[in-house]
Amino acid sequence: MSDIRQLKAELRINMMRRRESIPARCRFLASKKLATYACSLICIAPKRAVFSSYRAIKSEICTLPLELVLTNLDASIALPVIVREESYIVFKLWEKGCPLSLNKWDLLEPTESALLALPDVIILPLLAFDNAGGRLGYGGGFYDRGLKLLRSKKSVTAVGLAYEEQEVDVVPQESCDQKLDYILTPIGLRAIKGHRTIQCDFSS
């Protein structure tokens, strides 16, 4: 194992423990708070954009309240699907009430009949992030490969979804790791460069 991969493995263990230590009620409130920033996400996307979300596992923030507001703002929702043969992900459209199936990793994803999509914004789960756009996932590389493929086809914005407690000084990075463009936490949406909080006025 390389030094960087060893550092990543150690950080995963520590950050999983840190995230698991967040009380369940705080996680619930965080998911509600994130939904209040849906307008900020709309501001960084084209009109009638497709947002790729995910189904939360373990102690990840639940995305359902955010998805509901996004759809009310004329956005479409897609969810990732793991392509087993190629070990990356593609994205399929999903609407509330549509069935989901369990894959071999016990993750919920759209069924085979769901339509493929090319998202404008990808909302990613993570274990840790830093202020340079570094993201630490679970180590499978599915999002990195999927995001690289998608970025080769179109302009796409990557938004990491996290608790503030998941920020670290530096996430060890390899050449295959894809950078985040924004981070969304319960205190707001910030761009990687400049750390500015996105605020939009929809009153007019």
Short characterization:
Helix content is 27%, strand content 23%.
Descriptive labels:
204 residues, eight-stranded mixed β-sheet, alpha/beta, single chain, two-stranded antiparallel sheet
Can you tell me the CATH class?
A: Alpha Beta
Distance between the amino and carboxyl termini? 56 Å
What's the number of extended β-strand segments? Answer: 12
Strand portion, in percent? 15-25%
Number of helical stretches of at least 4 residues: 5
User: Strand order of the main beta sheet, please?
Assistant: 6-3-2-1-7-10-11-12
How does this structure look, described?
With 204 residues, this protein is an alpha/beta fold. It has one domain (3-191): Rossmann fold. 27% of the residues lie in helices and 23% in strands. The protein contains 5 helices and 12 strands.
Indicate the topology.
Layout: H1 3-20, H2 24-35, H3 38-43, E1 50-52, H4 64-72, E2 76-83, E3 88-94, E4 100-102, E5 108-110, E6 116-117, E7 121-124, E8 128-129, E9 135-136, H5 142-151, E10 157-161, E11 182-185, E12 188-191
Parallel strand pairs: 1-2, 1-7, 7-10, 10-11
Antiparallel strand pairs: 2-3, 3-6, 4-5, 8-9, 11-12
Helix pairs in contact: 2-4
